[in-house]
Each structure stands twice: as structure tokens, then as C-alpha cells.
Amino acid sequence: MSLDTPFRSCTDTPVLKERGQREVFCGLTGIIWLHRKMQDAFFLVVGSRTCAHLLQAAAGVMIFAEPRFGTAILEEKDLAGLADANAELDREVARLLSRRPDIRQLFLVGSCPSEVIKIDLARAAERLDGVHAPNVRVLNFSGSGIETTFTEGEDACLASMVPALPATDATELLVVGALPDVVEDQMLSLLAAMGAGPVRTLPARRSTDLPAVGPNTRFILVQPFLGATHAALIKRGATPISAPFPFGEEGSTLWFHAVAEALGLDRAKVDAVLAAPRARAQKSVAAVAETLRGKSIFFFPDSQLEIPLARFLARECGMVPVEVGTPYLHRELMAPELALLPHGPTISEGQDVELQLDRARAARADLTVCGLGLANPLEAEGLTTKWAIELVFTPVHFYEQAADLAGLFARPIRRRALLTPEAAE
């Protein structure tokens, strides 16, 4: 589809708002990719043994290197308010930092709201920061499943960092959102070739590289689920750059063009820099799209990636979205995406899982994107599914990963065709 082809978008599509039982991971899951990204940070989850088991099961057991996350387990006497949890927390933090002198950022992560775990982690972080600064910065955020869903843990983490970032009057571009290092390096290389420097990132790989923020900072998101971080940066005086998210060739190109326009870069130079990776992405996606073209897709709400992914699949792969569910619809961040998403699908916000299951069963889309807890039952009913969690853990941003992104959706369809040849007819 050409970028200038007139069509009816989803900008004015009524949103089906659902409030009921949800089927989604909690925000603690974000620690699994954040602890790998921030190389001198440690995430101490204050919670139950259940939370410890979740992290170990989701992240796997670290054999050759000590992980940069752990759990301060609350026992029954702590939850009953019979022990001095603050004193115990102070003692555990002191032990951790004495054993791990490499830690420069310590995040206290609540697994439940303060009234449940009987400890105010915000005050605890402030107290501990006073004790251990300047060697260690202590911050806190919530990963509670009551307060956050899957990817909102990263948003809460980054938002907690913004108030403590140093101030600056320098004119800089800030790219916000955790990316795998290899993808971030590709992005920074293209930005440098475009003439977009200096460029800083949040999160930075090390605390010594944390960006400064001020009135001349222009920032752009690479992840759709960073609404709180977006608001926190605006509060610090930074100016947002609005753009579609860099999924697929089209999204990546529009993202880079938005940066170029905001910074006043030479468009001819920008297009020359982007020409080769754009061509590679178009060719590689086209090959995978043969499997996807004309196939219908149904998104359960999971990560807030759903609307940008539906846009990519519809416009570049020829898929037909039936329903696009998202845990939370941030109108400002999603406006460029909704303007590109072809009219037709139901757009739903939040979840009442039983009602949505009814709609998914009625639709019987060629591919259903959902959480792990729903995938196997739906497969048993004859539906082809894709685990939504893979879309966060797999490198999928920008040009070189565009075909890999399409491939994540093509593989289950190919698998179904091999297992049940009649499905391919």
C-alpha cells in the first residue's frame, strides 16, 4: 500500500471498553529484559515466594553469571505487620550492596500495593538513597499485577528514573524505550548518518551514561507502552516527537522522518541514508507476506503493541485484523497509528476475558494473538495462536528485524498448514 493512498482509517472508530477479568502477565515481567539492558542495575522485588517463582520461571536459571534481580521474600509475620519490615529491608539491601559492589542503580520493586505488603517502598527508597548515595542510586516502582500489566513494568521503571535525571540546556535527541543492544546500535548508526546527533537513550546501558533532560530536549518513543514516562519527560520540559512506532519498513521510515523533521535535517540526505535498509526490509517482508496475505488476525490485549502491529500486518503483509485489543489505549501516542490502520477491525480497550473469548471463537480468525494461558485451550479448539509474549522478547524494531517480525506471525500459520493440510486450502 502506498503511503499516500487514500483510505478510511481507524481514527474515529468507536472503542469497545471492557472492564472485567483479565488474562495477562503482571508488570514484574519487565524486569526480565530491563535487568539485561541496564548493566549496573539491580532489581530487588519485595514480595512473596510466588513472585520469586515467576521471575525464575520466566527468566530461566542463570548458571554462568549472577543475575541482576532478586526477591526479598515477605513472610506471614511481615504481611501481618508483626515485624519491622523497614529494618529487615535495610539489612537486606546493605548485605546485597556489600556483596555486589558493581551495583550503581538499585530498584525496589513492589509486587503488590503498599497496603498489601505493609511497607511504603517510595519512602524506603528515599531513605536508602540517602544512606547509599552517591555510590548507589535507589529508586522504586510498582510491578504489581493489580496496578500494572505486562509491559507497564518498564513504563513504571523508566518513569521513576525521570525525576532524578540531571538537568541540561543542551539540544539533544532522546530515544526512549528498552531495545536489544544490537537493534539500538543499528538505530544509532542510522541516526548518526542522518546527522541527528547528539543522541541519548533511556534506559542507558550504564548509569554513567544516563541522559540529562531540559527544555531543549526532543524525545521520541520506540515502545508504545510508555505513557507515564512520556508524561514525566514533558513535565521535565522536554518536547515529544509524535510518530508511528518503528515496526516494519513503513513504521521505521515514518519514525525516522519524524525525527528528521523535528530536528530540521536535510530530507534528501535522510532518504539517501535510509534507501538501502528500506529496500532490504521491503524485499524481506514481501517474501514472508506471501504466507500472511489475506489471512485474518485477532488480538487479545497483552502488551500495548497490538495497534502498531496490526497496522504493520495490514499495510505491509496484507492481513485482515478482525479485533485489535489493547490493555490501555493512549490516544496521544496511538493517534499516528490509528490514522494508518485501515478501517474495519473492532478496537477494544481493557478486557473481559470471557466476552472476548466468545468473540474470538465466533470470528475464528486464521491467527489469534493471545497470552500463554489462553493459547493451548484455543489450539485445542482448532484455532491457530501466537504467544503475545514473544513479540516483546524478540528483536522486532526497525528495518533489519522487519522480516523477523512478520515471521513471528507466519510460522504458526505454516505449522498449522503442515499439521492439517486442509487448513491451507
Provide an overview of this structure:
The protein has helices at residues 31-37, 49-59, 76-79, 85-99, 114-117, 121-132, 152-161, 181-194, 227-235, 248-263, 267-292, 306-317, 331-338, 353-363, 372-380, 390-393, 402-419; strands spanning 15-19, 41-47, 69-73, 105-110, 137-142, 172-176, 199-202, 217-221, 239-240, 296-299, 320-326, 346-351, 367-370, 385-387. It has 3 domains: 15-22 and 283-424, Rossmann fold (3-Layer(aba) Sandwich), CATH 3.40.50.1980; 27-148, 3-Layer(aba) Sandwich (Rossmann fold); 172-268, Rossmann fold (3-Layer(aba) Sandwich), CATH 3.40.50. The strands form 3 sheets. A 6-stranded parallel sheet has the order 1-12-11-10-13-14, with helices on both faces. β13, α15 (372-380) and β14 (385-387) form a beta-alpha-beta unit. It has 425 residues and is of the alpha/beta class.
Briefly, what is this?
The chain has helices spanning 31-37, 49-59, 76-79, 85-99, 114-117, 121-132, 152-161, 181-194, 227-235, 248-263, 267-292, 306-317, 331-338, 353-363, 372-380, 390-393, 402-419; strands at 15-19, 41-47, 69-73, 105-110, 137-142, 172-176, 199-202, 217-221, 239-240, 296-299, 320-326, 346-351, 367-370, 385-387. It is an alpha/beta fold and 425 residues long.
